[in-house]
Amino acid sequence: MSDSLPANDSTHLHAIEALYNGHHGWLYGMLKRKLGNAMDAADLAQDTFTRILASQVTSIEQPRAYLSCVAKGILVNWYQRKALERAYLDALMLLPAQEAPAPEQRLMVLETLHDIDAMLDTLPPLVKRAFLLSQIGGHKYEDIAGQLQVSLITVKRYMKQAFVQCLLLVE
After folding, report:
1. Burial class of 155 by CB neighbour count within 10 A (0 to 12, 13 to 18, 19+)
2. Hey, which of 32-41, 83-92, 108-117, 132-141 has the most confident mean pLDDT?
3. Which H or E run includes 131?
């Protein structure tokens, strides 16, 4: 049994290695300027290359444009995650001290919120909106149908789709 990689895997790794060696410093610098934080910039640069490594891309015409595009997507997710964390921590500040969860529970809740947020991002926009109007806003399906300008049966279909995604997340 050989330890060598198949030709396409080897080509991919060489392409990513060249991309990393040639452009990591530039990407890190760009992210550091945007974030004003060296540690977060290093993490996001690493996440960018990890995502590209998983993509199986072997040829990139414009490396910096490609890196910028991938990094911007990761940066958007990072900002959403930070906003979600801030909202949760702000909500905790409103609780009396004796009702505040322990640090371990806070971390578990944050991880669950991130998982739910990622799951919601996989839903089509109207399905996501219907789900949030129902579950966060407490709206009845009839009200949601009016707001979204769809039929009641469509709202029920949207909710079923969202709940199926939730169940898949739990599993």
Report:
1. buried
2. 32-41
3. helix 125-135
